[in-house]
Amino acid sequence: MPMPLLQEKVSSQESSDSSTATVMTPHSMDLKNGREKLKDLALHLVDDIRPEMKEDIHDPTYQDEVGPAPKLEYVWRNIILMALLHLGALYGITLAPGCKAYTWLWVLLCYVFSGLGITAGAHRLWSHRTYKARLPLRLFLIIANTMAFQTYVYEWARDNRAHHKFTETHADPHNSRRGFFFCHVGWLLVRKHPAVREKGGSLDLSDLKAEKLLMFQKRYYKPSVLLMCFILPTLVPWYCWGETFQHSLCVATFLRSILTHNMTWLVNSAAHLYGYRPYDKNIDARENALVSLGTLGEGFHNYHHTFPYDYSTSEYRWSLNFTTFFIDCMAAIGLAYDLKKVPKASILARIKRTGDGSYKSG
Ligand SMILES: [Zn+2]
Ligand SMILES: [Zn+2]
């Protein structure tokens, strides 16, 4: 709640003027934290290199209201769907050694293609506007994104902006303070917390609404997913090189899809729980190289939450970061442009100010 914090800030300055006491009571520590948080917000806004987008900047003034947690309401449709997909994927693991070599290559191709639809598309382009893309690239990314079956971009980007702005509060859709299972997959299996609905609804999503391609995907999402995530990946190996229907369905569709899902979810779970915080020790997001490896470069998460406007989601470019390599290739042929990169001096200043001391230069 921003207002009480601002009021407290004023009264704390008045009291520190009239007192020389050096004892830090819990209340005065709260006030000090409040001042630090406001300073952080101001610095974030100064550092930001995208004048047109502020909805993914952490708002440290927002805090959870005190009170009992609302009762969990299960969404049985999602629970059953996820359980069936995971069972199909487990069966796919047992079939995988018997697949033809072309089927393996097809799985890898679909994994990378749909992965880019999330990382280069829903995340770096549409959630954070870290670069601009011309129509052919946006078309490629929206088709790839549909294959990933992680909801349409409009909703994905709204959730990601809320995750950044209200991180680790109840308004964060996958609040990591609610434990590994919740932030990994549990958040998709229950109704959203009222704070997510309230604060998510207050975000400015006008840039997404104005993009016809995104509204088209939203409108025709169900049949498009059926085609791109289920029918096409199954039919190609079966029809083109005579793979069995069972192998095609369970490996190229169920196993591939569940792998993409779990890898993406690891960014919300593992990269918020395990790893160093060289850029900002005050947030839970962490640097996790293993997550970067599986997600085409999305595991540099302490950096990403500190500088959400950097197109590389990392201080570096191609190191464990296939998505940045892809965007750079697109830029080389003129399909991506206006790539935002945080200057080294700003990064080093931030490390000095808020890092956990784990940063290794060079
Ligand atoms: Zn993000
Ligand atoms: Zn995060």
UniProtKB/TrEMBL annotation:
Q: What is its main location?
A: endoplasmic reticulum
For biological process, the GO terms are: monounsaturated fatty acid biosynthetic process; response to fatty acid; unsaturated fatty acid biosynthetic process
* A Pfam family it matches: FA_desaturase
Q: Membrane-crossing residues?
A: 74-96, 103-123, 135-154, 220-239
Keyword annotations of the record: Endoplasmic reticulum, Fatty acid biosynthesis, Fatty acid metabolism, Iron, Lipid biosynthesis, Lipid metabolism, Membrane, Metal-binding, Oxidoreductase, Transmembrane, Transmembrane helix
MF terms in GO: iron ion binding; palmitoyl-CoA 9-desaturase activity; stearoyl-CoA 9-desaturase activity
What EC number(s) are associated with this protein in UniProt?
1.14.19.1
Q: Does the keyword Lipid metabolism apply?
A: yes
Q: List locations, semicolon-separated.
A: Endoplasmic reticulum membrane
Q: How does it sit in the membrane?
A: Multi-pass membrane protein
PROSITE patterns tied to this protein: FATTY_ACID_DESATUR_1 (PS00476)
Q: Which cofactor does it need?
A: Fe(2+)
Where in the numbering of this chain does the Fatty acid desaturase domain appear? 104-309
Q: Which reaction does it catalyse?
A: octadecanoyl-CoA + 2 Fe(II)-[cytochrome b5] + O2 + 2 H(+) = (9Z)-octadecenoyl-CoA + 2 Fe(III)-[cytochrome b5] + 2 H2O
- List cellular component terms (GO): endoplasmic reticulum membrane
Stretches the record annotates as Disordered: 1-26
CDD domains found in the cross-reference section: Delta9-FADS-like
- What family does the entry list? Belongs to the fatty acid desaturase type 1 family.
How are the domains described in the entry? The histidine box domains are involved in binding the catalytic metal ions.
Could you identify this protein by its name? Answer: stearoyl-CoA 9-desaturase
